[in-house]
Amino acid sequence: TESDYDDFDKYRQTLFNALTADMFTADTIVIGQSLNDRHLKELVKKVVGLRNEGVQSRVF
């Protein structure tokens, strides 16, 4: 149903927000997911860019 899609979008956004926070505060290893995924790739680029501005963590 349409509400299922809305709920999924909210869950996905919450998941990506949590992943972003984890990437800022600790080294991150991505297992079982391709960096060819557009959304994950954009998130990694964002975190790496911010890290280069002073946030200390690494993404593997």
Per-chain topology:
Elements lengths: L1 H24 L12 H15 L8
Helix pairs in contact: 1-2
Task: Describe what this molecule looks like in 3D.
Helices cover 65% and strands 0% of the residues. The longest helix is centred in the first third of the chain and has 24 residues, at 2-25. With 60 residues, the protein is mainly alpha-helical. The protein contains 2 helices and no strands.
Gist of the model:
This protein has 60 residues and is mostly helical.
Mean pLDDT score: 81
Tally of helical segments = 2
Q: What Rg, in angstroms, do the CA atoms define?
A: 13 Å
The H-and-E topology, N to C, reads as HH
State which percent range the strand residues make up. under 5%
What's the story with the biggest beta sheet? none
Which geometry do the CA atoms define?
Answer: elongated
Number of strands: 0
* Residue share in helix: 55-70%
Secondary-structure class:
mainly alpha
- Low-pLDDT runs: none
N-to-C span: 37 Å
Instruction: Indicate how many domains the architecture comprises.
Output: 1
